[in-house]
Design a protein that fits this description.
The protein is built from 4 helices and 10 strands; from the N terminus they run ββαβαββαβαββββ. The two termini are 14 Å apart. Helix content is 19%, strand content 34%. It is of the alpha/beta class. It has one domain: Dihydrofolate Reductase, subunit A, CATH 3.40.430. Strand 3, helix 2 and strand 4 form a beta-alpha-beta unit. The longest helix is centred in the N-terminal third of the chain and has 11 residues. The chain is globular, with a radius of gyration of 15 Å.
């Protein structure tokens, strides 16, 4: 399986200035549970937004810059190269950002989307999900509470 995993607002906003515009602890926990032990594919900007590599995951960083180096990850130069490197993983995760999601949409078999209920100003966006190509398999609502300022829904999509 190749799974795109993201949190996106109702207007498909992902973030602004290379950061998220919301804080959803339960979503972070879900992301950790799903991706631990797997390869995670990201773009350079997403890699550079992390204070350190995420534990127990193999980080594949896509960059067009052939001189780009990272400490704690593996640089590749295309989605095809990243997927070839992760070919033995039972579920490889594409974790962003916006440009990588656009590219990844053609390769993904599944999407784990946390739909944040609200619209936000952003400079990075998740691509539109074409319901002719993708089928919603599961939808689980999470209301606001003392730790979550915004309600959200976990959506699991599968390629038709």
């Amino acid at each position: 399986m190749i799974t795109m995993i993201a949190a996106a607002a109702e207007n498909n906003a992902l973030g602004k200035d290379n950061d998220l515009v919301w804080h959803l602890p339960d979503d972070f926990k879900r992301f950790k549970t799903l991706t631990t032990g797997h390869h995670i594919i990201m773009g350079r900007k997403t890699w550079e937004s992390f204070p350190h590599p995420l534990p127990n995951r193999t980080h594949l960083v896509i960059s067009r810059n052939t001189d780009y180096k990272v400490d704690g990850g593996i640089v590749v130069h295309s989605m095809e190269d990243a997927l070839a490197f992760a070919k033995d993983d039972s579920n490889t995760y594409i974790i962003g950002g916006g440009e990588i999601y656009k590219i990844g949409l053609d390769f993904a078999t599944h999407i784990e989307l946390t739909r944040v209920h609200g619209t936000f100003e952003a400079d990075a966006f998740f691509p539109e999900i074409d319901t002719g190509v993708w089928e919603l398999q599961e939808s689980v609502f999470h209301d606001t509470d003392d730790r979550h300022e915004f309600g959200f829904t976990y959506e699991t999509w599968k390629r038709r």
